[in-house]
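Notebook, bench 3.
Goal today: get a predicted structure for Putative acyl-CoA dehydrogenase from Ilumatobacter coccineus so we can plan the truncation constructs. The sequence was checked against the plasmid map this morning, with no discrepancies at the termini. Length recorded as 425 residues. Pasting the sequence as submitted so the record is complete.
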Amino acid sequence: MAIDFTLSPELEALRMRIRAFVDDVIKPGERELEGGGDGEPLAGRDRLRALFGMRKQAKEAGIWLPHMPEEWGGMGLGHVELAMVQAEAAKSYYGPWVFNCQAPDEGNMHTLLHWGTDAQKEKYLKPLCEGNTRGSCFAMTEPEVAGSDPTLIQTRAYQDGDEWVINGHKWFISGARRAEFAILVCRTEDNPDIPQAANSAFIIDLPSEGWNDVREVETMHGGTGHSEILIEDLRVHNDQMLGGRGQGHLLGQYRLGPARLAHCMRWIAQAETALDMMVDRSLNRFSHGSLLAEKQGIQWMIADSSMELYQAKLMVLHAASKIDAAHKQGDDTPADERVDFKGEVSMAKHFVANMLGRVIDRAIQVHGALGYSTDTPLAHMYQHARWARFADGADEVHQMRIAQRTIAAYTDHKSTRRATGDLPI
């Protein structure tokens, strides 16, 4: 049997190294950064020194850039192996950033690696991999149209000699204020053969004249990180196009598949943290004659959370294995033999996002008023968890696609097996 959920001794050792680094370096560093105990939060140069000091230690420890090939300074891990790294890294808030595998940079690195020219890789990908930039952003979502349907994008670009002139409106652009460049998706084709061929992508150096930062959008978890951008007569050279004309939709979908699963890997870490806290609380809180852990209502919450976390881990591992299998196939692989992982990623993304919210919610309930306060990380985790159900595709869109694939599988083969993982069971 080829099915094996164990790690090689080398990968198990790597996982333990990452776990130890998170516990011994990143978590204490986070407490210092945020002013844990009696200290004041670090600011300015002191904050930057502490943050980049942790990155330097991660590089020296050989746990840097796990998702990128070795020739780009990475660890060359596949997606199954990356799941192990992300699930450990995301036990801490800054973990993915310290290891340089955080969104949106992680997805942008994959995109530049696959679609960028040699000159674009040298200018934009190399500094990202080295960790020597403020980062990047991906500008696709717009306020006027549904973000889950990129064929409706209204930001437009028209060609003027060797340049393109771009006008439009973007928002919820994560990391835009600190980014050194953006990957911008806009409409370049008026009458494409198919709606998915209307958009193209450009790399925009930041700051640029015509790229106007309107505000940071206030969200449930505060007012940092997500920008509204007004684009007015922004000029960009034709050399800055990423991929070919009309390939913006294809590029975006290529980026979002693995990126969705990477989010799931990090969400699993958050859910596991919440479950650990829930069980610990139940073993240390006495009420109405017994510990909470001895009460059936609490046991059911723990059991439901354990089962859902188990499901989430299996779904992510299987979807990751299909991405790895697809990437091993050559360009000459016949279309009917290509490994398709879109369905598995959609199902994982939908399930894990919802599982995350449910597990954190139960953990808050078991903690009572303490869980609702900011004395534990649960309140902050819960605010972020609500975002998971529409980031990288709303629940309802994924459900629609899952249903469409299931109906198509039955129509083609008189069986839904292909749409439910195509597993040997």
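The first strand starts at residue 136 and ends at 139. The chain is about 50% helix and 15% strand.
Flagging this for group meeting.
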